[in-house]
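Hi P.,

Sorry for the delay on this. The queue was packed all week, but I finally got your sequence through. Input first:
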Amino acid sequence: MPLIWALLTYLPQKFYVKDGSLVFMHGLISRENSIVPLDRVHSLRTEKGLWFRILGMRGIMFDTLATKGGAVFNDINSVQLPAAEALGIKPITGPKDAWRLSRPIVKVENCDEYYLEDLTHSVPYLVPEAANLLSEIGRRFNDSLEARGGGNYRLKVTSVLRTEGAVNKLRRRNINATSNSAHRYGTTFDISYVRFFSDSVTVERSQEDLKNLLGEILKEVRDDGRCYVKFERKQGCFHITARK
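Then the structure:
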C-alpha cells in the first residue's frame, strides 16, 4: 500500500520554472496548476524517505506567503483597534445610533471584485476608505489571476460592519469573539482564504493557489501602510482593517 500511495500521490505531480514563476502541476484525475512567482517562494525543501529512495524519487515542498500566514500577517486586535477607532464611526448600539452616525458609511454589494457571503453577524456597510480598499484588493486579485493564466474566481467577503447586537449574538456562539471588535467601527472586513466564489470554472485553480495570490496582494497593501491584516486560522479568513 505505501508503494501504491507514493505512486498515485507523487507521479502525477510536476514542477517547472517558466517566465520567472514556479509552476506546480498536480492532480491524478483533475489536473490543476499552481503558479507562484519565484520571488514569492520563501523556502524550498526536499524529502527522500524509504519508498522515495526505492523509486528514485524525491519529494519537494515549498513555502509561500500564505503557508506562513500566521507569521507574516500578525496584526492582532490591540493593533487594529486604535486604527479602527481613529478612522471609523462610533459603534452602533441601537436604532438612534444608526440614524446619527458620526461619519458616512457606504453599502457594499456583490460586484466583479468580490462576493458577499450570507452575512449572519454583520451588515453590508463600511466607511468609504474601507469600501475602496476592499474594491482595490478585489481588482488586484482579478488582474493578477488573469496575468497568471486566468480563472473565473472572486474573493468571498464573510464579515463587515457589526452592530452591538450582532457582536453579542456572535459571542454567544463563539466564546473567543471579542466584545470590542474592530468590526464595530465600519473599517474592518474579513476575506476567506479557504472559499472563493466562482460563477463557472473556465480555468481550474487550486484553493492553495488562490490563497497564495490573495496573500501576495494583502502584503503589498499592508506594506504600503493602507491596512492591518491578521491571519485567522480557525475562521479561515484574513481579518483586515483599513488605515488613515
